[in-house]
Amino acid sequence: MHFTGQVWRPPFEAQNAILQITSGCMHHKCKFCSLYDGTAFRMSPMSEIEKDLEELRDFHLLTNRIFLTGANPLGLSYNKLVTIGEKIKAYLPHAESIGGFARITDVKSKTQEELCKLRLIGFNGISIGTETGDDRTLAYMNKGYTAADIVEQLHKLDNAGIEYHITYMNGLAGSGNSERHALESAKIFNQAKPLSINIVGLTIFPQSALHKEVLSGIYTPASEVEKLYELKTFIRNLNIHTVINANTVSNTAPFVAELPHNKEGVLEALQGIVDRFDETCLSNYRNSIASL
Ligand code: SF4
Hints:
This protein is an alpha/beta fold. The chain contains 11 helices and 10 strands.
């Protein structure tokens, strides 16, 4: 199999076959991000994709889902995605669904009709790094879209029948801005139908542009305690049926919960963490994270 640089996939895709169709990120401008550092964006040549599909056919013939690699493989043109989707079907006839990471702008670049056709080919369950519904934070972090874009593009996915997971980056707005970030995000995410909201705790690595802003005093990160209160506000204000996955290394208080069913229990548990662990303890954990 061909794999370039670091390969990322959500934890819930762990059982699925992985196929590299892109590497790196088309955008590569989000201030907090160091995920694809040193890996230029590239679409894999079809010859490489076909070789990997041959290998998957030999070892994963019965796989029912393929996860496409790269930060935003869904950013490829509609025609390229159709060609790749059809190749996947030809080699792996049991692969009913095709997932991968996507940016909001990747959805924006497709028409409603194109999205409907992509759903018919099998594209479904895509993971979108929305991070926040707060316009000031989206702009500050160079995400490249607005909160209104999030609502509009997720509605397009709903209309096409393409299911999706989105992310909330806890602490992203920085010290003193957590309440706004949580409330604005809940307001925007409440207008969508995500299968899950994946909580990523902001962890600033030295390779990121944000790290330089921290060193120069331009950006002050939220404390870990502030992040936990922010998370409580975000969850309290969500009123949709979804699953919250806060179960990766970036979460100081790991949990998985179904909303609205587990809402009160989660809020109590988060308060319990704040009551039992002080800032030093939580920051020590954050500082010990070597990689996402
Ligand atoms: S957060 Fe996602 S879109 Fe932004 S630079 Fe990183 S990989 Fe690219």
